[in-house]
Structure formats: structure tokens, C-alpha cells
């Protein structure tokens, strides 16, 4: 099974991806927990180009190409081999992030993003959990966490609000696989919502 977690920066998706991986492992499943951009040595190199770039280093189109290149490597080196071995793959972000960040929030590039996806990726998760949280709360959580990978989080509240709208829209666009999960409350409360939706 192939599962993705999505949402705005600081919504809690990495925490929930990790909690679900631990819960499934405790039940005896073999789980590969991975992330994007990254998840394979080559894709982690591309991640550094993306998240360590200062300010507006890349155009939205170039970002699409870099994220898609990283995803292709991640798919070839990590995701497909794990799925072929019967393992469960849980990824912290996948193609929906490109649809929302580059395709909608940074500009109107959905057609470009879709064409790249069809050419180079061509696979969707079986289930996608969008952790839905208001951007002010999410930014507060992100700031409290600190860290130096602030290339995207520094884009501000207005950008995060466009993202939140974009992620909510995925549930309507892909109703068979995307589940909107209320991200408020304790870690265990959110985890219970994820399990119920799985
Ligand atoms: N339900 C929650 N209640 C309070 N704090 C939370 C909750 N879930 C996560 N956090 C905290 O919020 C911060 C961000 O969480 P996390 O790293 O899981 O988010 P994220 O969506 O993966 O962020 P990013 O995309 O920016 O990496 C962390 O410090 C985490 O411990
Ligand atoms: C896959 C993907 C990611 N992004 C952005 C979203 C985040 O701001 C960063 C990654 O940071 P995280 O803390 O690991 O979530 O990259 C994007 O804009 N487009 C994408 O396809």
C-alpha cells in the first residue's frame, strides 16, 4: 500500500506519518517511511538545491522540474522497490505538493504540472491524508520548532492561506483517495482520525 501525507508547512503531517508508521510496524507490517523532496540519495541532493536556495532563486516552472526530477529518483530508487517487495510506503509529501505549491499557489501552472506528472511519474498513492490546519496555528507550530530549512516557510501567511485552500480542494478533485483530516487537537486525537480514515 502506498500512503501520502500532505498539508501546509507545520500542519503536523511529518509527526502523523511517523506515528502511523510506528503503529503499522507494531502490527507487524513492513513499512518504509520516506519524504519529499528527498527519500533517495539523489533526491536529497536536489532537496538541498531547493530548500537552501535563497529567496526567489528558482522560477515556479524550474521548481516544478526540480521537484519532479527528485520525485522520479525517489520513485525509482525507494518507492517502487518497496512496493514490489510488498512493503507499505508512507511518504511525507508527494505529487499533490507540486500541484498545490507550484501548480496553484505560486502561479497558474496546473497544466504544466499535470503534463510533467503524466510523463515522468504516472502513479498516485492509494490513500492521501491532508492534515488540515489553519495557517496561523501551523506557522506558530513551525516557528516553535525552529530549524534552518526556511526557504518555503518564509513565504508568509498569505501564501500559506492559498496553500490551505489548494490542499482542501484536493479532497474534491480526488475523492477516491484524498481524505481531509482535522489537524487540531492532540497528537493522539489527530492520529485516531487518520486511523479511522484508513
Ligand atoms: N497535534 C499537534 N499539537 C501540537 N503540536 C503539534 C501537533 N502536531 C505536530 N506538532 C508540532 O508542530 C511542529 C510541526 O510538526 P510537523 O513537523 O509534524 O509538521 P509538518 O507539517 O511536517 O511541517 P513541515 O512541512 O514544515 O516540515 C512540531 O514541533 C510538532 O511537534
Ligand atoms: C514535495 C514538494 C515540496 N514543496 C515544499 C513544501 C515545503 O515547504 C518544502 C519541503 O519542506 P518539508 O518541511 O519537508 O515539508 O518544499 C513544494 O513546494 N513542492 C513539492 O512538490
What is the number of independent domains? 1
What oligomeric state do these chains adopt? single chain
> Biggest sheet, open or closed, and with what strands and sense?
5 strands, parallel
* Helix-strand category: alpha/beta
CATH topology: Rossmann fold
Count of extended strands: 5
The portion of residues assigned to helices is 55-70%
Number of helices: 8
Gyration radius from CA atoms, angstroms: 16 Å
* Named CATH architecture: 3-Layer(aba) Sandwich
> How would you sum up the global shape?
globular
Itemize the secondary structure elements and their pairings:
Blueprint: E1 2-6, H1 13-26, E2 31-35, H2 41-51, H3 60-84, E3 88-92, H4 95-105, H5 110-120, E4 127-132, H6 135-145, H7 157-173, E5 178-182, H8 187-197
Parallel strand pairs: 1-3, 1-4, 2-3, 4-5
Helix pairs in contact: 1-8, 2-3, 3-4, 3-5, 4-5, 4-7
Bound molecules: adenosine-5'-triphosphate and ligand LXEULUCI.
Amino acid at each position: 500500500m502506498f500512503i501520502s501525507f500532505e498539508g501546509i508547512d507545520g500542519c503536523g503531517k511529518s509527526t502523523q506519518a511517523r506515528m502511523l508508521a510506528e503503529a503499522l510496524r507494531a502490527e507487524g507490517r513492513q513499512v518504509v517511511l520516506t519524504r519529499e523532496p528527498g527519500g533517495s540519495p539523489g533526491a536529497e541532493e536536489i532537496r538541498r538545491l531547493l530548500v537552501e536556495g535563497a529567496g526567489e532563486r528558482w522560477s515556479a516552472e524550474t521548481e516544478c522540474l526540480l521537484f519532479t526530477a527528485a520525485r522520479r529518483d525517489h520513485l525509482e530508487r525507494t518507492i517502487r522497490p518497496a512496493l514490489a517487495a510488498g512493503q507499505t510506503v508512507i511518504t511525507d509529501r508527494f505529487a499533490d505538493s507540486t500541484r498545490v505549491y507550484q501548480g496553484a499557489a505560486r502561479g497558474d501552472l496546473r497544466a504544466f504540472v499535470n503534463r510533467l506528472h503524466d510523463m515522468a511519474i504516472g502513479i498516485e498513492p492509494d490513500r492521501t491524508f491532508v492534515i488540515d490546519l489553519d495557517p496561523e496555528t501551523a506557522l506558530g507550530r513551525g516557528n516553535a520548532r525552529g530549524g534552518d530549512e526556511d526557504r518555503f516557510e518564509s513565504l508568509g501567511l498569505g501564501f500559506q492561506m492559498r496553500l490551505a485552500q489548494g490542499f482542501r480542494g484536493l479532497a474534491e478533485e480526488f475523492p477516491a483517495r484524498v481524505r481531509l483530516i482535522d489537524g487540531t487537537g492532540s497528537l493522539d486525537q489527530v492520529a485516531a482520525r487518520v486511523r479511522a480514515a484508513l
